[in-house]
Amino acid sequence: MTIVVGYLATAEGEAALTAAMTEATRRSSRLLVLVSQRRGEDTAVLEANLDSVRTRLDDAGLGYEVRQVERGRDVADDLIDAAEASDAELIVIGLRRRSPVGKLILGSNAQRILLDAPTPVLAVKS
């Protein structure tokens, strides 16, 4: 089985990757890591981040695939589509800290993933 994780080079992305690695180890599953490029992020920085992710996964001995998602596409759609295509058992996402008002309304991507995902979703905070 496969666990899909959304990754950005942020504290939330790191928390999501760590949680996904823990779940993959516990479930003996493969990871499908979808990496998004942050707005304004240099391509060289993105490649360094991808190398770091691959090294962590190699060191953990996990089976994995890392895919970079196209800029401009909807991240929620990318995660949901990947989960459906890989018959995933779980999606893992990171959540940002929100203000009291922001807590009433989750981020639009997180909310769409939680509501539309074909599988259970594990949402973690940094």
Automatic annotation (TrEMBL):
Domain (UspA) ranges: 2-125
Gene3D superfamilies: HUPs
Record-linked SUPFAM superfamilies: Adenine nucleotide alpha hydrolases-like
Superkingdom to which the source organism belongs: Bacteria
InterPro entries (alphabetical): Rossmann-like_a/b/a_fold, Universal_stress_UspA, UspA
PANTHER family per the UniProt record, alphabetical: STRESS RESPONSE PROTEIN NHAX, UNIVERSAL STRESS PROTEIN UP12
Entry similarity comment: Belongs to the universal stress protein A family.
Protein name: UspA domain protein
Organism: Serinibacter arcticus
